Structure formats: structure tokens, C-alpha cells
Amino acid sequence: MTEAALTVEKVAVHFGGLVALSDMNFSVGEGEIVSLIGPNGAGKTTAFNVVTGFLQPTRGAVSYRGTALNGLKPHQIAGLGLARTFQRTSVFPNDTVYDNLLIGLHRQSRVSFLDSILGLPRARSSERRLRERAGELVEWVGLERRGHDLAGSLSYGEQRLVGVALALAAEPSMLLLDEPVSGMNASETHTFVQLVRNIRDRGVTILLVEHDMPMVMSVSDRIVVLNYGRIIAEGTPDAIRNDPAVIEAYLGQGAARA
Amino acid sequence: MSQFLQHLINMLVLGGTYALLGIGLTLIFGIMNVVNFTHGVLYTFGAYIMFIVVHQLGVNFFLALPLAVVAGWLLGAAIELTLLRPLRGSDIDTTMLVMIGAWIAMQSGALWIWGGVAKSVTTPFPEAPLVLGPVSVSWLRLFVLASAAMLIVLTYLLINKTKLGGAMRATFQDRDTASLMGVNVDLIYTSTFAIGSSLAAAAGALLGPVYVIFPQMGDLAAVKAFAIVILGGLGNITGAVIGGFILALAEELGAGYVSSGYRDAMGFLIIIAVLIFKPTGLFARSERVG
Amino acid sequence: MKAAVGILAVVALASVPLWLRDPYLMNALITTGIFIIGAMSLNLLLGFTGQLSLGHIAFFGIGAYVSALTSLGFDVGLPFGLRIVHIPWPPIAGFVLAIVVAGFCGYLVGLLSFRVRGAYFVIVTISFAEVVRLVALNWVELTQGPLALTNIPSITVGLPGLGDLTLRTKLQNYYLVLTVAVVTYLLISRLVHSHFGRSMRGLMENETLAVSVGIDVTRTLTLAAVISAGIAGAAGSLYAHYIRIIDPEVFAFINTVTMVIMVITGGKGSLAGPVVGGLIFGLLPVFLRPIMAPEAQWIAYGGVLIVILFILPRGIVPSLALRFAKPPKPIEARAPAAFTERDAKEHA
């Protein structure tokens, strides 16, 4: 493994008496694509929320490139270069796709409040740059035909792509994708896998939570398997495919999706 | 010391009616998630029903109270059926604004029908107060306290011992599950709003004769009700009762020892302080509601 | 196209005093204009951040009192034997201070109340306005309480080369209010089209997502509250120097409701909404006065608010805009430069 970008150490999350995560340890190397899988309720989304600051862990520590994330607010973590997508609410529904990205490019604008109120040249040129960038992002995820449609009117799969573009707008060094292909058909999923690889090739580290096993197997460098809040296996796709504990966990649930 | 005892007595009388107001609002707010701006108008309405029944219809004072409760129930049910039921599923801001519209229209209606001149209700009680050692309390106020206590107990029994109350509690916990379990949520909403409204009307009918009756009397009452709900925690009946007495005590002490001009500021200050320091209310249970 | 409509509207409004001589109507137009400025500021919170502030009149009233007291002077005792004596300053200084102080109050309320959202935010804002009203009513030494502050001086502006001009007449005040209203409109328009405005919209539409793309909730909402309160304070100052007498009733909840009705009817989240709604509800009393008692008018307003929410929940302006909207132009595939240019024009 290369040098670790994200390190999760001994993280536990308790909701009242319920243990959502217990003693979770894993790391993601720079430029890796790592998937976090597990049956429903295994704690995947909880782990995600801890890493991105939407949830504070009961115990343990998360650090990114040497900076401790404990106690930071989500927007501060975003500022460190970690961007994420969401399972359900991935867009600003009442804005066009294009305006969605302008909102997402928020951090790229370095214009002071007065500059933009007075419409100074600095603000204008910054706006121009943002608009160009939004155009590039729309194109990158392949939604140029939908640029002027309201994001809320897009199909499920297209909204996922907007979500990814939004996360990319923050120019992250690491991207966390929460079940990005659920609701996509096979060809959309295939295109999406290409997109994920494409993003990684630009130097972005990727952590993925996903149910779609063929997708996970084809895209991941490494897979971490969670069940009942603890890690039961970790390794390459081939190793995971043949791991008895993993098979047990999925068959035990009665819903082997692999 | 005797002055403090007198404040305590006054607090008990006020607190009972405040508790009624608070229970009504906390039920509506907690179960329906509607910020009910008509609550104060219902309070005013109850007081005017008292005046009309006693002075214009010549009915016995003691019969007027149940009549005001029934009238409040009917008006509340009417508001729910015409204004809230069609908006089921709208966001809380929309229903809140509709309730504001209803409040403006109804309060102005009261002003139009009954005029702005304050009215008072004659009561069958003797003028001379009951003197107990260092403190005195009028017979009317004792009647108010006793009636309020009775209504609080009745509401408590209704919520905790009847089938309707059980359905209301289930709806409060989780509307969707309650509906799956066969609870008729529409009926629960209408009943809740009607019950809450009848309690507000009862509070107005009780306090109206103590003070005077005028169309805007409900505005402050509504604010007090909100303060009580926030103090006691959303949907928490016991909290509303305790909150009612705390507000009454704060007002009595504020008026007695600071300045009578700031008596009515107490409710607002309580609201601001509670929301800053303990937004879930003083008596909130561990789980978060809403 | 939009700019043309705007310029036409301003020219039309500017021409009104040329053909309208009725002082009663002029007065109605001036007070309406002042309330429209207040409604525009409310719309910034209600329409562009989704926060329903029902204590908005507090900032308006604070602006009115600050401006009046600055230009009248005062002499009050404070606890611990302190005394503050203030010599009257020119009203224009009052106008600036009104904006600053109201904006600062907006900052405090924003900081405190954005900890609580939804219904609780509404209740906190109402409570804030009522506490301020009770202070204005009871701090007689400073505010004269119910006796009102009277003889507030008119605003004086220094014109280069012409010396000082004191705005006493209705005509002069009309143009003053119109100028401030146009500046406010332009300011809010710039704001909502800047990246700050986009942050606000993002928060309103999907807060979780907005936070994850790095938008700072507290900072954005507090900034909106400060600007909104500052503008409301400016409107209050105009009111004080035009009416020249203010009492604690300026804080009455009904005044907030008037602004809310203007915004909701015209269309929240639309720049022109508060202007259209404000003109309707500001001038309606003029036409209703001969035929309806004031109480009956208020019954009608309450009814109109309900009816609008039922049948035109988005308000008049957005509903009209939707009706006359052209179908969206398709955009060419793979042409970021082209569509950047066109968008830049559209959003300019």
C-alpha cells in the first residue's frame, strides 16, 4: 500500500445503547480506490458520516493527510479537500444543473463580499472563471445536454452524476461516494465506473460505499467488509470474493447480492 | 414575607389557566406540527362567549363555562377542517402563514362585531375576598383555580385513559406508523385541534371575568402559551402544566419586584432564554421530537 | 429584456409626482415605498434563505428610534451613576447609524436564533420584537414611552455646489424614498446573484449538501440577517424622518404581518415580488377606505393571505413569470465556452 491519505483508528459510534460501529480501523492510500461494503445496517453510512464530520465518533480518531478531523464541522472538512456525495439528496432540486455547480464552486470563489456587491472587475473575472469551470464539470460527467434543466427534474442516475460533479467542484483530493450507482441501469453504471477511474487518474483518492457487487469488484483496488459494526475482512477483490467470513455474512442475511 | 405569600397565591390562580392554554397549544404543536397562531383568538372567543351567554342570553354563570368549551371545540374543528385539512403535507411555514391570516381575520372580526370597548362580566361571587391570615384571594379567583384544575385533570384522563388519547399519543410518536396501525390520522388531527381550541376557549372564559374582555386580549395569551410550550417541551403535557406555573411565578415576581411594565416581557424573555440555553425545553425527554 | 422592464418601472414611478397632485395619495405612496423597502429586506431572509423572521419590524423600529434619537439628542441615566448626554447630530448621521445599529441587532439575533430553526426561529424573532417594544414603552427617559418622540427633524442632504437641502415636502420625500428603494433593489439583486446568494439558495434547497460542498451555514445566514436588518433599519429611519413622530406602536406585530403579506402575495424569493405585493397592499387601503371600515379591511387582508397561500402559493410574480416563460433553449453539446458567454449575459 502507498502512503495513507485517510486513517480511521479505533472508531466507535454509539447511539444511546445501540452500537453502530465498534473499534473500526482502516486506511486509504493516496490515489487508491477503496470500497466499504457490508449488508444493510452494517454501519457503512455511519462510517461515512464520521469521516465527513456529519457525525462525531464516540471514541477513536480520524485523520486526513496528518490532520485530525475530530471536532471539525463538515464545511471545514470539505475545506481540507474531502468531498462526498449523498445517497438520497444529491442535488439542489430547484436550480439548473449548471447553477447547481455554481453553488458547488462556492469555495473556489475568492471574492470579497464588497467586491461582488460593487461588481468590481475582480469579481467579474472570478465569476467568469467559475462559469467556465461549471461548464467543464457538466461536460466531464456527461450532462451537457441537461445543463439548463432543473436538477430536480433529472432521472435518478443523472442526479447522482450531478452529485458527483458537485463533489468534484470543490476540487477534492479525496472523494467519498455513498452508494453512487443505486438506481442506475447497467449502461449508466458502466459509464459511471469509467468516470470513477477517470477521476482517480487525475490523482483523487476514492472511498466508495456500494451495494452493487459487480461494480465494486470491477472498480476497487481494495475492499473493506463491515458487518454488525465491525470489520470482518479486508483485501483485494479476489481475496474478498473467496473469503468465508464474507460469504457467511451475506448468505446469513439471506440476500446475497454478489 | 406576606407579600411573597400573596404572590404565590396569585401565581397559583394564573398558573392554572396558563397551564390550560399551554396544554392546548402543546397538543396541537406536538401532534400536528402546526404553529397555531389562532390559539389566542380562541382564548378571546371563549371570553366573549362567556360575556354573550351571561349578559345577552341571560344564562347562569356556571353554565356559561361548559358552553364556552363546546363553542371553542366547534370553532376549532371548523378551522381545522376548512384551513388545515386541505393543506395536509404542506410545509410548516405555509400552515403557519395561513394560521396568521386566520388570526388577523378573526381578531378583526371580533373587533368589528363587538367593538374595541372593553367589556366585563358580572359574576355571582361576593365582592369581599376570602382572607386567610396574611393573604387574601377573591372567590372568583378560587373558582377559576378549581375549574382550571378540574379541566387539567379531565384532559389528562382523556389523553392517558381513553382510546382517542391512545391514538393521539401514537400519532405524536410516529404519524406514519400510527396510520399503518389503523389510526385515522385525519380524525386525530381534527380532534386534537378541537380539543386544544376548547382548552384555549376555557382559559379565556375563566380569565375574562377576572380582567376585562377586548378583541386583542388573546395576543399576549398566545405568546404566553408559546412560552409555556417551549418551557415544557413540545407535546409534553406535564411539562406544559409545570411551565404554566413557572411562567405565572416569573410574571408575579417580575411585576412585584422589578417593574409592572415588564410583567408581560417575562414570557418573551423565557422563550429567548430557553431556546438559547436548552432548545428542547426544560422537561424534554431524551429522544428528540420534530 | 428584464432590465428594460425595470428601467420602465422606475421611470414610471419617477414621473408620478408630475401628474399626481393629491397629497393624500402622495402620502400613501411614500409610506408604501418605505414599507416596500422593509418588505424587500424581509424577502432576503424569507425568500432567499427560507428563514421566516416574524420579528422583522424590530429592526425597522430600532432604525426609526436610533435615527430619531441621534437627530433629537437625549440625556439618560444608566445604572452605576453613569449618564449619557447626546447632542443632536444631523439626521443623515442618524440614517447611517440606524443601518449600523439595526444591522448589529440582526447579527445578534442571527447568531442566537440560527441555533434554532423552523417554528422556533419564528417564535424567537417574534419574542425579540416584543421585548424591544416593551423596552421602548417602559424606558421613558430615553424614548418618552407612549408619549412618543416628536418633532423629529427632516433629513437634510448636502448637494455639491448647491448647499444643504432639507427634505420637507412630500415631493422631496417621495424622491428620497424612491432612490433608497431603487438602491436597495439593486443591492439585493447583486447579492442574490453573487456567490453569497448562491450559498443562501443552496442552504435553502438542501442544507446537508450545501454544507458538504463547503458552505458555512452560520456565516451565510448571519450575513443575510445583518444585511436584511440593516436595510430594515434604513427603512425605519426614513419612516421616522418622514412621519416625524414615532411611538412604541411602530413595533406592533401587525406591521410585521403587513410586510409578510406583501412578500407572500408578490412572491417570496422573487426580486420584484415585494414591490408588486407592496404596491397592492400599500395602496389598497386608499381605495378600500371609502367603502370599508378598517376592521373589515383587516378581515379582507387576512382572507387574502389565506386565499393566496391556497391558490397561488408561489405568489403573483413567480406565477406570472411561469406563465409567460419561454420554453428553455436547448444548449449545444460540448460547448462550454459558448454557453458560458451566453450565461454571463443572462446573469449580468
Précis, in short:
The complex is a heterotrimer of chains A (258), B (290) and C (348). Chain A folds into 2 domains: 173 residues, Rossmann fold (3-Layer(aba) Sandwich); 61 residues, no CATH class.
What does this structure look like?
The complex is a heterotrimer of chains A (258), B (290) and C (348). Chain A has two domains: 4-91 and 173-257, Rossmann fold, CATH 3.40.50; 93-153, no CATH class. Chain A is 38% helix and 24% strand. Chain A has helices at 44-51, 74-79, 97-104, 113-118, 121-140, 156-169, 186-201, 213-219, 237-241, 244-252, and strands at 4-15, 18-29, 33-37, 59-64, 67-68, 82-84, 174-178, 205-209, 222-227, 230-235. In chain B, strand 1 and strand 2 (135-137) form a beta hairpin. The longest helix of chain B is centred in the N-terminal third of the chain and has 31 residues, at 2-32. With 348 residues, chain C is mainly alpha-helical. Chain C has helices at residues 2-19, 23-46, 56-72, 91-113, 118-138, 140-143, 170-193, 195-205, 207-212, 217-243, 253-266, 273-288, 294-311, 316-324, 336-347; strands spanning 74-77, 83-86, 156-159, 163-166. Chain C has a two-stranded antiparallel sheet. In chain C, a hairpin with a 3-residue loop joins strand 3 (156-159) and strand 4 (163-166). The N and C termini of chain C lie close together (12 Å). Residues 329-348 of chain C have low confidence and may be disordered. Classes of the chains: A alpha/beta (258), B mainly alpha (290), C mainly alpha (348).
Give structural attributes.
heterotrimer; A: 258 residues; alpha/beta; Rossmann fold; 2 domains; six-stranded mixed beta sheet; four-stranded antiparallel beta sheet; 10 strands; 38% helix; globular; B: 290 residues; mainly alpha; ABC transporter involved in vitamin B12 uptake, BtuC; two-stranded antiparallel ribbon; 11 helices; 2 strands; 72% helix; 2% strand; disordered C terminus
Secondary-structure blueprint:
The complex is a heterotrimer of chains A (258), B (290) and C (348).
Chain A: E1 4-15, E2 18-29, E3 33-37, H1 44-51, E4 59-64, E5 67-68, H2 74-79, E6 82-84, H3 97-104, H4 113-118, H5 121-140, H6 156-169, E7 174-178, H7 186-201, E8 205-209, H8 213-219, E9 222-227, E10 230-235, H9 237-241, H10 244-252
Parallel strand pairs in A: 3-8, 3-9, 6-7, 7-8
Antiparallel strand pairs in A: 1-2, 1-4, 4-5, 9-10
Helix pairs in contact in A: 3-5, 3-6, 5-6
Chain B: H1 2-32, H2 39-56, H3 61-84, H4 92-114, E1 130-132, E2 135-137, H5 139-161, H6 163-173, H7 175-180, H8 185-207, H9 217-232, H10 237-257, H11 265-277
Helix pairs in contact in B: 1-5, 1-8, 1-9, 1-10, 2-3, 2-4, 2-8, 2-9, 3-8, 5-6, 5-8, 6-8, 9-10, 9-11, 10-11
Chain C: H1 2-19, H2 23-46, H3 56-72, E1 74-77, E2 83-86, H4 91-113, H5 118-138, H6 140-143, E3 156-159, E4 163-166, H7 170-193, H8 195-205, H9 207-212, H10 217-243, H11 253-266, H12 273-288, H13 294-311, H14 316-324, H15 336-347
Helix pairs in contact in C: 1-7, 2-7, 2-10, 2-11, 2-12, 3-4, 3-5, 3-10, 4-10, 7-8, 7-10, 8-10, 11-12
